[in-house]
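Progress report, Aim 2. The chain analyzed during this reporting quarter is listed below.
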Amino acid sequence: MKVKHILYAILFVSCAFSAQGQVKFEAKVSKKKLGINERLRVEFEMNQDGDNFNPPDFDGFRVVGGPNQAISNSYINRKRTYSKTYSYFLSPLKRGNLTIGQASIVVDGQTYKTIPVAIEVTAAVKTPTDGNNTDIIAEDNVHLVAEISNGSPFLNERITVTYKMYVSKDVSITSQWREIDTPRYADFWSKNIDASGNFKIYEGDYKGENYRYVILRTTVLYPQKTGKLELEPLTLDVPIDVPGNRRDLFGRRLTTRVNKTISAGRRTINVKPLPLEGQPENFSGAVGEFQFSVKSNKEKLDANEALEITTAVSGNGNLNTLQLPSLKVPSTLEMYEPERSENLRTKATGISGSVSENYTIVPQYKGLYPIRPIAFSYFNPKTEKYQTITSQELVINVENGPVTNAVTTSNDDGTLTDKQAVVLSSENFKYIKLDANLSPIVSEPFFKSTLFWSLLGGPFLLIPLLIIAGRKRSIRRADVQGNRLRKANKMAKRYLAEAKKNIGNKVIFYEALERSLHNYLKAKLNIETSEMSKERITQLLQERNVDETPVMQFMSLLKSCEFARYTPTSNVTIQQDYDKAVETISTIDKQLQ
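Predicted structure tokens for the chain:
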């Protein structure tokens, strides 16, 4: 048993020494592309102490500084970390593709070599950089990039702009950056999706080199016009920690903080117009991928009972700006203005969700009413083609209610109209005589005849009558109070005409009376049926300076309409309610301001 434990201990120690004994020796350069008038910093770094360091011959370069040696030795959580670095500063002697050769070191009797590094030397640059300048190091190792998902979208097609900040492993950012210039997206509908400070670090490449990057912001754009549109740059002030040449007591390199302003640069988007070929006549600008539906909450109902028909578009695209096709119904169906509702979400993939319009419809008469199919057209940018979705035909069955002789027909433009049915009878052609019984007409002279003198003197006799009628008309016009009363009575009778037709039928009378009272309020107070609560009606009438007595009478009439359907009522009471309604509406109409 003891032998087994000893073997485990030996195995553990050997693994520990093996892990610790892994030697890492590599070459690092400040840049892989530079001008012939710039300098290059080369570092050879190892994680264990070695002997007989042998640098490469630096063919094509002149050594202008170094070698500088730095050692870092630290213990963190009882774990030893060691680093030894030899650094050189080089100046290229010629243009072209050069190579930093292999350096070698001997560790525990074994030789380790670095991997050769390729360097491209270009023509002289206007402003040469110094590989030891902290400002230049910060500028070369931190970059802000605006990545665009589609540089040539269609009008109203979604594009996504992703702002990424790339940071090389030679520098670090330990403090929060500051936004100093936020882009304004003219000619675009825009929505920013910020990371809210919870930035995730990714590994990636920037111009062929290994970098770390974070996604600062994602912006969803929908272009609203065609042509070349410019995106303003995002500009940040970033504190960057750059390693310098000084080191602490433990040999670790001290860092210097440099504040740099970095920008993503201006970008140009070429927005293409939507193709005219194959564009449907009912196309209203929807771009994306959508589904379309038309649904009714009832298929059978009675007259004067409300139903709801909903038109809805769902999917991904410019849902926030699209227009839904209008619903067309027969004129015998009373339809109110639709209520629009939106349930939208904005993500990097664009706007998704649904948009709907809810129509309230009240049939007036018994019968079958077809709701013709309506079509919704949109442009799919993936297939670059127009697509049309047509709804199913709905049939509204009104089972109980008054009967009308009107029939529903369809016009050439798709609208529905009601026309009176034509009834043919054998009596229609009775006036046509088949056997003529003609007799000669004896003509009398017109001059000095009775008709002649009547036509001649008639106008003179009409003059006094016209004068009298004119005076009465002037007196009637001057009677302002009387005119208002007559006008109010006329308005009341017009609204109550339908109720009067059914005065012998209690149920139909009170339904018509209630509907006429509501229609009167809608015309006078400009409110919808859904807003007609008793408190709301009382408030609006009092605000229009109507006395309390007619207001109470009006409320009493509405209450009578509600209870009269379920309680016994005599013809006398019905007549009294009708007269009371005429008087109340006339009074209110006269007092309304």
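The mean pLDDT is 80. The domain at 20-129 is CATH 2.60.40.10 (Immunoglobulin-like). These observations will guide the mutagenesis work planned for the next reporting period.
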